[in-house]
Description:
The structure holds two protein chains of two kinds. Chain A is 28% helix and 33% strand. By secondary structure, chain A is an alpha+beta fold. Chain A has one domain: 2-Layer Sandwich (Alpha-D-Glucose-1,6-Bisphosphate, Chain A, domain 4). Chain A has a seven-stranded antiparallel β-sheet, with helices on one face. In chain A, a hairpin with a 2-residue loop joins strand 6 (98-107) and strand 7. In chain A, helix 1 crosses helix 2 (28-35). The longest helix of chain A has 14 residues, at 139-152. The radius of gyration of chain A is 16 Å and the shape is globular. Chain A starts with 6 loop residues before the first strand and ends with a helix. The model of chain A is unreliable at 135-153 (pLDDT under 50). Chain B has helices at 3-11, 20-26, 29-41, 46-50, 57-69, 89-94, 96-117; strands spanning 73-78, 81-86. Chain B has a two-stranded antiparallel sheet with strand order 1-2. In chain B, a hairpin with a 2-residue loop joins strand 1 (73-78) and strand 2. The longest helix of chain B has 22 residues, at 96-117. Chain B is elongated. The chains are: A alpha+beta, B mainly alpha. Chain A binds chain B through residues 5, 8, 10, 12, 14-17, 20-21, 24-25, 30, 33-36, 83-84, 113, 115, 117, 120, 124-129, 131-136, 139-140, 142-143, 145-146, 149-150, 152-153, and chain B through 10, 13, 15-17, 19-20, 22-24, 26-28, 32, 94-95, 97-98, 100-118, 120-121.
Amino acid sequence: MNTSTDRIERKILIKASRGRVWRAVSDAEELGDWFGVNFKGKTFEAGKHIQGKITYPGYEHLTMDVLIERIVPEQLLSWRWHPAAIDPKVDYSQEPTTLVVFELQEVDGGTMLTLVESGLDKIPLARRADVFRMNSSGWDQQMENIKKHVGKT
Amino acid sequence: MSVRRKAAAAAKPKPLQIYAPVFAALGDEIRLKLIAALCVGGAMSITQLTSGTDISRQAITKHLGVLAAAGLVRDVKVGRERLWEFEPTQLDEARRTLELIGQQWDHALAKLKFAVESNPA
């Protein structure tokens, strides 16, 4: 399949030191705060699973489960997970995972954060329907949130 | 997604659930195989689609009906023969799911930026 459908890449410039951004990404509790998952009292450790309840309104009944793959201090954090695993009745453990990689780079004016999620071609088309369901409720609100956040910074 | 398309999407959100039948139709092994066969083989008759399988004509006809209802295949008459062909438009739409996952990341990263920049110490 065309690789352009296999991966998502995003870059964002954050006006803060690399050390500060690293903390927001690598400290499980702090990541949970902006990501919308409760990782209170938990830590990221390479090779280990970490689970937490989603805190995003409307999805509180869901548990997020990621397998931390690599941690390179101040540079890289990666995990594997099941994207849009939104049905609590479904066992996703046998399905292929995608790889999520956060990379940090010092640049003029702050820190460049690169996010890559890859392996999406392996996710069955039928499962991609869940992504639709996940987005069809509340996406307008999310767009509004982004506008608000971006407007403030 | 271009900035312009993103702005347009934000201004006029599409009812995303209208694509759910497409995925539901694809959520079956036999129907996925039928789509795969039609993608490779072009327009095919039910006889061609059943050859080499142990699936009955009736079953294939039923599955083609589900795919047709989702807009994924359509039938064409060639002489006296009825052929089935793949209709790609719906799948192109389905590809938009990828953009949606990207939008979820945009949202998460915007929140990260805001969290860090409003508390830089």
